[in-house]
């Protein structure tokens, strides 16, 4: 009979219980000596039982050890068998995995080859489309070249037209020469009239001789005394009549010359307009290379059309190396276009949507720039409390010039001068600075609103609620004699000082001084002139004459002679006003 481990455990439990029983018995033997015999018998029996149990346990242990050894050997054999089968299975799996990996690698290589073929075909199609686009671009460039050639031919035709216009002007000059000859004829008629006057004088002399005797008899004067009296009266009458006729003829000739001068100026402006426009209405934008011109033009010219439509500026792309031209009479639009084009060229992305985005950004930047220039000007002039709309309009003057002088800087100078003069006169200096700063406000929008800059400035100042003194200064800074307040006179004086300052406008200091000295020298060269002063930056010369040598009638002739000498001997811009001043004083002393 084979013992299992459970039987062995039960046997051990029985042995332990037997031992316990023995112990209990021994304890009871100690307590009771009466049952010693029974205890001895029980001990023997327990020893026998213990021996039997020990033998059985030894036997069961040996059997369990042998069974455990057998089980261990079987387990080892089974484990060895499992290890061998596992190694075999792993080897088989490794071989199948290698086969699967090889199959997947072949499939991946095939898939990559297929993708490479597809990518090659896509790139070939893209290159073909790009080649076609380049061919289309080349065709558009060829069309543009043909258009430019057509424009060149048109410009040549315009040149021929200008040549014909020049010939017409030459014929017009001949007509003017004929008119000058007619004027000479009129002068000859005047000479004839003078001769008739001389004849009349001779007749009067004859009559004078006839009445000489009667005068001597009636007046009791000698012939020489009567002759001197008549001649003095006749000379005075003839001098007055001569001055009146010369004045009338001068007025008539001045009107005719003014009309002819207007025609000549219009023709000269027409002939010189191209050079003036090129100097004042064109900005040059550099580009990194001529290849950028094609990107600026875009496919079929869509980029350049979008740019011109959004900015209102003509974009000229010609043979100028590494540069394009922006043409517009509006300097603000031209500046916005320049900023946008420079950003597009720097970015490199040029297409209609990007152009629209960049132009809008440039317009916002321009608004900020204009407002900052207006704030800086107001701060520099010491003017506070201007409304934002006025500051914006003031900043627009940064892009306005007059005879090369920046109008915004000119306004700041006028503000300082007006404030200083107002303070010296005990007036409100802050109000004077405000009037001087805003006196040319209308020039900020005179290209967009009809009317003179004075009318526009008055309207704007009234709309923004400026004080009446400021409005009066704006309205009358060119005619201060009609102003209602002293601020208009101060603004006019400061305006003249700023404009006439040497170097403020396109004229060197040496030429300015020489022109003033020559004006005064010409005026002083005439007899009867006491003193002469060139004022208003050489636009007027005031001649003080001696009243005992120059009469009122001769003053008209003297002014004409001085103006004629200035026209012949000097070169000057605009016109020069000659003012002859004759003052008569009667002085008597009461004793």
From TrEMBL:
<keyword id="KW-0812">Transmembrane</keyword>
<feature type="transmembrane region" description="Helical">
    <location>
        <begin position="6"/>
        <end position="25"/>
    </location>
</feature>
<keyword id="KW-0378">Hydrolase</keyword>
<keyword id="KW-0472">Membrane</keyword>
<dbReference type="Pfam" id="PF01966">
    <property type="entry name" value="HD"/>
</dbReference>
<comment type="function">
    <text>Endoribonuclease that initiates mRNA decay.</text>
</comment>
<dbReference type="GO" id="GO:0016787">
    <property type="term" value="F:hydrolase activity"/>
</dbReference>
<dbReference type="Pfam" id="PF00013">
    <property type="entry name" value="KH_1"/>
</dbReference>
<dbReference type="GO" id="GO:0003723">
    <property type="term" value="F:RNA binding"/>
</dbReference>
<dbReference type="InterPro" id="IPR022711">
    <property type="entry name" value="RNase_Y_N"/>
</dbReference>
<dbReference type="InterPro" id="IPR006675">
    <property type="entry name" value="HDIG_dom"/>
</dbReference>
<keyword id="KW-0694">RNA-binding</keyword>
<dbReference type="InterPro" id="IPR003607">
    <property type="entry name" value="HD/PDEase_dom"/>
</dbReference>
<keyword id="KW-1133">Transmembrane helix</keyword>
<feature type="coiled-coil region">
    <location>
        <begin position="25"/>
        <end position="267"/>
    </location>
</feature>
<feature type="domain" description="HD">
    <location>
        <begin position="407"/>
        <end position="500"/>
    </location>
</feature>
<dbReference type="Pfam" id="PF12072">
    <property type="entry name" value="RNase_Y_N"/>
</dbReference>
<dbReference type="InterPro" id="IPR006674">
    <property type="entry name" value="HD_domain"/>
</dbReference>
<keyword id="KW-0255">Endonuclease</keyword>
<comment type="similarity">
    <text>Belongs to the RNase Y family.</text>
</comment>
<dbReference type="GO" id="GO:0006402">
    <property type="term" value="P:mRNA catabolic process"/>
</dbReference>
<dbReference type="InterPro" id="IPR004088">
    <property type="entry name" value="KH_dom_type_1"/>
</dbReference>
<keyword id="KW-1003">Cell membrane</keyword>
<keyword id="KW-0175">Coiled coil</keyword>
<dbReference type="InterPro" id="IPR036612">
    <property type="entry name" value="KH_dom_type_1_sf"/>
</dbReference>
<dbReference type="GO" id="GO:0004521">
    <property type="term" value="F:RNA endonuclease activity"/>
</dbReference>
<dbReference type="InterPro" id="IPR017705">
    <property type="entry name" value="Ribonuclease_Y"/>
</dbReference>
<keyword id="KW-0540">Nuclease</keyword>
<dbReference type="GO" id="GO:0005886">
    <property type="term" value="C:plasma membrane"/>
</dbReference>
<dbReference type="InterPro" id="IPR004087">
    <property type="entry name" value="KH_dom"/>
</dbReference>
<protein>
    <recommendedName>
        <fullName>Ribonuclease Y</fullName>
        <ecNumber>3.1.-.-</ecNumber>
    </recommendedName>
</protein>
